């Protein structure tokens, strides 16, 4: 077995107990749950309390992309052919990370959707850093050090304490996430901050062993990727100012307007699927999300028809507040008899998406729900 790239072969992802019942795209709730699982992880706790705007938006955009694609050739999709020894030692660990990490799956699956629509660039090339050569005698005498670049959200990637050396796969994962974010129209600063934040979470999801005990390893870099410096300086207040691949705020109002525009364009006629994909891309919304409201033939689904009916006669705030208040005052028996929250919402002409703004999954008022009732009472 070649000892070259031992930084890759030494890593073996392990199954970790992930928060159940909390979707990974629920940025704050999922991050808090992971932080509670690792109470000594200060960086993870910091990210849970201060998630970047980029992560909030991209989590919403890629929220429907958490599934495992069993037949996915991840390496071949993202990378060009490389040295056989590199391919051998990179493919298997990356697929294990894909299998274990919800966050990495969402990012990569969404990138794959963008790629299939012609919106992503060519594949990347995995190379040894300049000056490093393959040798059958052992590892090259080269170190790569990641250090924390200040305070706040200025961390790069694990390990962040002192001058611990990161292993090769860790560096590659960080750069791969950075490259994925490049395809969502984020600027340089946002990409580095987002890559750091996502990489930290991905490593915890896969029970990443750190700090690394490796002192020497080859440096893998992505072609056309700016190699990270020893200390990456990122402004403490990272704001996401540019537009992502999908809407900056993907909420009910946005999708309602998009479906209305589609209906106005097509009427009741049927159009090829490809035209709907182009329309989704132009509107900056995921094709998968649009298909919830528009069928493959171009006609509205039942959910789309309900959305249009609500848009034509929107429920005013007082009526909404009365429905919320009625739910809060119901006993458990009555709630069960009404079909739970889903049944209750359906009979009152609401969508569960809108209802969740005011009542959580446990049936309790959210902060927005309390404010709604307070406004109605005043």
From TrEMBL:
It holds the Pfam family DUF4765. Residues 20-110 form the DUF4765 domain. This is Uncharacterized protein DUF4765.
């Amino acid at each position: 077995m070649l000892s070259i790239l031992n930084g890759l072969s030494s890593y073996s992802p392990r199954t970790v107990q992930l928060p159940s019942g909390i979707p990974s795209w629920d940025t704050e709730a999922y991050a808090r749950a992971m932080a509670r699982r690792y109470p000594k992880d200060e960086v993870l706790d910091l990210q849970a309390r201060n998630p970047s705007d980029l992560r909030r938006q991209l989590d919403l955009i890629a929220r429907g992309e958490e599934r495992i694609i069993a037949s996915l050739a991840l390496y071949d999709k993202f990378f060009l052919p490389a040295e056989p020894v590199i391919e051998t030692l990179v493919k298997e660990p990356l697929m294990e990370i894909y299998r274990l990490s919800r966050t990495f799956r969402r990012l990569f699956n969404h990138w794959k959707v963008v790629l299939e629509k012609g919106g992503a660039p060519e594949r990347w090339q995995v190379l040894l850093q300049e000056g490093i050569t393959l040798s059958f005698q052992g590892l090259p005498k080269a170190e790569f050090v990641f250090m924390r670049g200040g305070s706040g959200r200025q961390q790069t990637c694990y390990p962040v304490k002192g001058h611990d050396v990161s292993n090769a796969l860790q560096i590659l994962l960080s750069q791969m996430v950075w490259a994925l974010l490049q395809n969502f129209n984020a600027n340089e600063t946002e990409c580095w901050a987002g890559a750091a934040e996502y990489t930290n979470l991905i490593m915890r999801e896969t029970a990443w062993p750190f700090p690394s005990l490796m002192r020497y390893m080859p440096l893998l870099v992505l072609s056309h990727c700016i190699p990270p410096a020893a200390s990456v300086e990122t402004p403490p207040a990272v704001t996401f100012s540019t537009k992502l691949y999908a809407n900056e705020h993907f909420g009910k109002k946005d999708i309602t307007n998009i479906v209305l525009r589609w209906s106005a364009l097509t009427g009741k006629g049927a159009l090829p699927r490809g035209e709907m994909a182009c329309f989704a891309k132009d509107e900056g919304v995921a094709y998968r999300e649009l298909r919830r409201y528009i069928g493959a033939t171009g006609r509205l689904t039942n959910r789309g028809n309900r959305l249009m009916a609500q848009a034509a006669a929107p429920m005013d705030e007082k009526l909404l507040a009365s429905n919320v208040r009625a739910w809060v005052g119901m006993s458990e028996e009555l709630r069960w008899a009404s079909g739970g929250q889903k049944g209750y919402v359906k009979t009152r002409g609401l969508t569960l998406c809108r209802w969740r703004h005011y009542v959580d999954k446990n049936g309790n008022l959210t902060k927005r729900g309390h404010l709604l009732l307070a406004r109605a009472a005043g």
